Amino acid sequence: MRAKRGFSVRVLAVVPGLLAVFVSFILIASPSLAENGRDIWGLDSKTYTVDGEDYDAKPWEEKAAELPPYPRDEDFYSFYVSAPAVNRFYVDTANISLGSDGVVRYALLIISPAGVRNVSYEGMRCQSRERRTYALGRPDNRWTVARGSLWVPVREATTNRHHAALFLDFFCPDGIMATRLEDVARAIRKQGEPLVKKR
Length: 199
What we know:
This protein is α+β, with helices and mostly antiparallel strands. The longest helix has 28 residues, at about 1-30. Residues about 1-35 and about 45-50 have low confidence and may be disordered. About 25% of the residues lie in helices and about 25% in strands.
């Protein structure tokens, strides 16, 4: 009996330590918990199901992204981001693509209050709620391929929530990729304003 009591005491002493190690592992393994902003669904899991089917169980292969022609100002339309946003955000409605690999690809223009323009060609994967940058615009209206670009979560934020706005409002309603390109472009044009106004 004494040996059993001693064993019980040792187990009770070890449990708090194991619990601390487990909690530390969870925090380290989930870096998104320490980041600003949150997953657009309020979750950090990549589990994605539709009608009970687990899409993460299927292997996914990204298709090579072909850079589109450099966007024209005439094709950029604004979209609403948030009331506190100070930058203006535009999408090239003439070159949005809905890939067979489940990735929406598009050109994004951000204009700062000082008039500084940043153009990027990006992809958004509805299934995993992630995005990545394929190329950046140059002053001479050419693309520069982005090196070392990785898929990162689409997150909500207070001001610059432009990726979340594109995901939720246009590209991936209800977490599923839009099926008709014409509807996507029409919705953006209907909500926004053209960068170059027709005379």
